[in-house]
Amino acid sequence: MGLRARLLLLALVPTVPALLLALYTNLELRRLGAARVEKDAMKVVQLTAARSKHRMESRIVAPSDERPVNAQASLGQPFVERD
């Protein structure tokens, strides 16, 4: 084995573990980032669903005199002006 090959080997031996460690760290960070994005997306979906449910329930529970005029008309009720 020549001197050049030995010098190249001497330079590569400590470099390979560092590169492998950097690769592993990068892959782990990507995995954690993907998990965080998935978790955040699930929170957004749950909040949106809860808000939609609340809005739907508040529309169903609201007395007829609290409904907007156009909602009464769409339900087949006569148009009534409010004071």
Residue stretches low in confidence (pLDDT < 50, at least 5 long) are: none
How many domains is the backbone divided into? 1
Strand content: under 5%
Q: Could you state the order of secondary-structure elements as H and E?
A: HH
Termini separation comes to 102 Å
Give the number of DSSP strands.
0
- Helix count equals 2
The level of helicity is over 70%
Mean pLDDT level: 83
Query: Major beta sheet, specifics?
Result: none
Rg over CA atoms, rounded to whole Å, is 33 Å
General form: rod-shaped
Given helix and strand content, the structural type is mainly alpha
Describe the structure in your own words.
78% of the residues lie in helices and 0% in strands. It has helices spanning 3-61, 69-74. The mean pLDDT is 83. The longest helix has 59 residues, at 3-61. By secondary structure, the chain is mostly helical. The protein has one domain (3-74).
